[in-house]
Design brief:
6 helices, globular, mainly alpha, 4% strand
């Protein structure tokens, strides 16, 4: 079990680093413009990406080139930025180095949660069908939309917990795609002060 956990952790960081690279490149182009969005608008943006994935899966057709995998990457990055918006730690004037610092802080927390849940659920996600990942993300988004309209959660998980789950479902999808050779990542990743290569 420990070896499986280590493998999953390494793969998680490989995917996350690919997502972060794109986020940083886009920050060069757009700056902090995304941070003018309020939480309901951010939820809608992520929902649109999720619905496009489901549409492509169901119809087996698409009119624009952006792949399903690129939509999952977008879901991950939007959700991380959504967490920043929730805590009111970012605005349109946020410098790039501060954005990167916040991005890293959020992903450390999300990774820690993933490792705990992955231990308890025994890597159940590796046996999930391809429809489950966008469907579960969509379910979380429906919950979040309800919460934003009702002023927050009363007895269930709050918005940040739903963001965490959305990010991890999307990363799990991309790990499986990476294993199939459909998603390219760096084979060596930096974890803290140690360099770990995928086995």
């Amino acid at each position: 079990m420990e070896q499986k956990q280590k493998k999953t952790s390494n793969q998680w960081w490989q995917v996350l680093n690919a997502c972060k690279k794109l986020a940083m490149d886009k920050y060069d182009d757009y700056g902090g413009s995304v941070f003018v969005l309020r939480t309901p608008s951010m939820v809608d943006q992520i929902r649109n990406k999720c619905l496009r994935i489901i549409s492509i899966q169901e119809t087996k057709t698409q009119k624009i080139d952006d792949s399903i995998n690129s939509e999952f990457v977008g879901i991950i990055n939007y959700s991380i930025m959504g967490l920043m918006i929730l805590e009111d730690k970012a605005d349109e004037d946020l410098p790039k180095h501060e954005f990167e610092k916040l991005y890293d802080q959020k992903t450390e927390t999300i990774h820690e949660l993933m490792m705990k849940k992955n231990h308890d659920y025994g890597e159940a996600w590796r046996g999930m069908g391809e429809t489950s990942f966008p469907d579960l993300i969509r379910q979380k988004l429906v919950r979040m939309k309800t919460m934003t309209e009702n002023g927050g959660a009363k007895v269930s998980e709050d918005l940040d917990a739903n963001y965490h789950d959305i990010i991890n479902y999307a990363i799990f999808w991309l790990i499986l795609e990476m294993q199939r050779g459909n998603f390219e990542v760096e084979t060596e990743v930096k974890l803290g002060t140690e360099s770990t290569e995928q086995k």
